[in-house]
User: Which sequence fits this backbone?
C-alpha cells in the first residue's frame, strides 16, 4: 500500500504542466520563464496594451528590458531600488501579486534606465533645422491648432464659378464687400485656432492671410486677421523640444535594434520563435 501512494505522488509530480515552470528563453545568460511571460502579459493588460500575440510581445519586452538595463549599466544609468519603488507608486497600479510587482519593477527600471541613456548620449547630438521646426509647427496647426486668434470669413453654398471670381481683398471689410458683391452672405467669426473644428482647422492651417481657400463642400474660407495669443510665447521652444525628442526616440529605436542583434538570445520554445 505504501508503495502505491509513493508511486502516486511521484506520478502526480510529473503531471504538473511542463510550461508552468519551464524556461522559455535566455537573454545573455538570464533565463526567462513561462511565469515571467504570464506576469508581463497581465501587466500589459493593466496598462491597456493588448494584442492577438500578447505572449510573444511580452517575451520581446522582457528581452528588451534586459538589453536596456545591461547597456545602461555602462553609463551608470540604472536607477536604484528606492527610485524605482517611488516611481512605481506614482503609477497607481493597485495591489499586485508578487510576480507582477517584480515584473513591473523590471519594466520600469529598464524604461527609466533607457530614458537616461537617451538623455545623456543621444539628445545632445540631435540638431533641429528651421525647416523641421516649420514642418512640426504646420503639423501641430493641422492636428491640434496653435494659440493664434484667427478672424475668418466663410462663404457657404457658393458655386465654383463664383468662387473663381473672388479677388484678393485688402482687409476683412474689403473681403466682406467682395463677397456681398457677388450676392453672397459672408459669415465672420473670431476664434483660437485650437478651438476650430478639425475640418476648418485643416483648411486654414497653411492658408495664406487674405487668400480665399479652394471650394470644399460648396464653402470658401478666408483668414483676414491673425494675432498670437499670450501662450504662444514659448511655443517655438516647446516645438523644438518635441522635435528633438521625436528624433532622439527614432535614433534610440535604431540603436536598440542593433543591440538586439548583438545580444545572445536563445528561444527554447518553438511557439515563441519568429
Assistant:
Amino acid at each position: 500500500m505504501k508503495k502505491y501512494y509513493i508511486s502516486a505522488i511521484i506520478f502526480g509530480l510529473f503531471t504538473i504542466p511542463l510550461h508552468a515552470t519551464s524556461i522559455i528563453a535566455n537573454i545573455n545568460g538570464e533565463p526567462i520563464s513561462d511565469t515571467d511571460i504570464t506576469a508581463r502579459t497581465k501587466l500589459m493588460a493593466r496598462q491597456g496594451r493588448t494584442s492577438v500575440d500578447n505572449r510573444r510581445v511580452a517575451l520581446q519586452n522582457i528581452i528588451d528590458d534586459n538589453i536596456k538595463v545591461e547597456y545602461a549599466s555602462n553609463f551608470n544609468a540604472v536607477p536604484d531600488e528606492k527610485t524605482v519603488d517611488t516611481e512605481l507608486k506614482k503609477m497607481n497600479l493597485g495591489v499586485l501579486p508578487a510576480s507582477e510587482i517584480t515584473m513591473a519593477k523590471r519594466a520600469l527600471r529598464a524604461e527609466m534606465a533607457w530614458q537616461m541613456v537617451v538623455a545623456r548620449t543621444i539628445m545632445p547630438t540631435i540638431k533641429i533645422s528651421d525647416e523641421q521646426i516649420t514642418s512640426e509647427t504646420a503639423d501641430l496647426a493641422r492636428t491640434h491648432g496653435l494659440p493664434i486668434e484667427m478672424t475668418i470669413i466663410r462663404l457657404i453654398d457658393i458655386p465654383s464659378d463664383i468662387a473663381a471670381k473672388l479677388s484678393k481683398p485688402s482687409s476683412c471689410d474689403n473681403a466682406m464687400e467682395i463677397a456681398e458683391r457677388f450676392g453672397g452672405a459672408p459669415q465672420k467669426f473670431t476664434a483660437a485656432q485650437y478651438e476650430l473644428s478639425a475640418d476648418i482647422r485643416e483648411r486654414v492651417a497653411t492658408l495664406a492671410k487674405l487668400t480665399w481657400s479652394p471650394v470644399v463642400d460648396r464653402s470658401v474660407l478666408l483668414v483676414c486677421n491673425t494675432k498670437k495669443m499670450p501662450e504662444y510665447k514659448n511655443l517655438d521652444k516647446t516645438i523644438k523640444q518635441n522635435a528633438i525628442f521625436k528624433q532622439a526616440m527614432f535614433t534610440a529605436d535604431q540603436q536598440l535594434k542593433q543591440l538586439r542583434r548583438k545580444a545572445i538570445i536563445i528561444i527554447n520554445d518553438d511557439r515563441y520563435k519568429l
The beta strands are 23-27, 30-33, 148-156, 187-192, 219-228, 265-267. The radius of gyration is 30 Å. The chain has ten helices and six strands.
